[in-house]
Amino acid sequence: MNEIPTMMRGAADRASELIRNVREDQLALPTPCQDYDVKELINHMEWVASLFESVALGGEFVPPKDYTGDFPERVGRMLAVWERPEAWEGVSEAMGGLPKPVLANMALTDLVAHGWDLARATGQDYDVDVDTAAALLAFGAQMAPMGRERGAFGDEVSVPDDAPPLDRFLGVIGRDPAWKR
Description:
Blueprint: H1 4-20, H2 38-56, H3 71-82, E1 91-92, E2 98-99, H4 100-122, H5 130-149, H6 165-172
Antiparallel strand pairs: 1-2
Helix pairs in contact: 1-3, 1-4, 2-3, 2-4, 5-6
């Protein structure tokens, strides 16, 4: 049974909650994702939700857009598409021929990684269930070379082998689990 849609929903719900709790005075704060401040990170999350909705439908690569503040609505549309069996079939030409199940895992990776980034930047708590963290750790380790090559992942951060799966996942994709603002 495919658990990724359930994991995506949990990560999307948590990300939506985090975004709703961001105050106006926090939008310019730095985040662990060095390319983005809080507002730019939320903008990126909105774009990614639209992108993964489009590619799940067999659509084109959606270019980035300006911040609109509608992440919960965008991610809700994305989730609805990934809950359809046909979203998992075939490959996405818009994403270089990657199989759609890989894209779903990429969407989950993005939701969790950037949810964690946002929580750290704004002083909010963040956690995911152990099964989601373990699935992301396995996927991240498998995809790390390509992720680094394409600029999606940073250099691996050393994390103890006995650290929680979420921390080890973050290290694999180039985040320091101890990051503080």
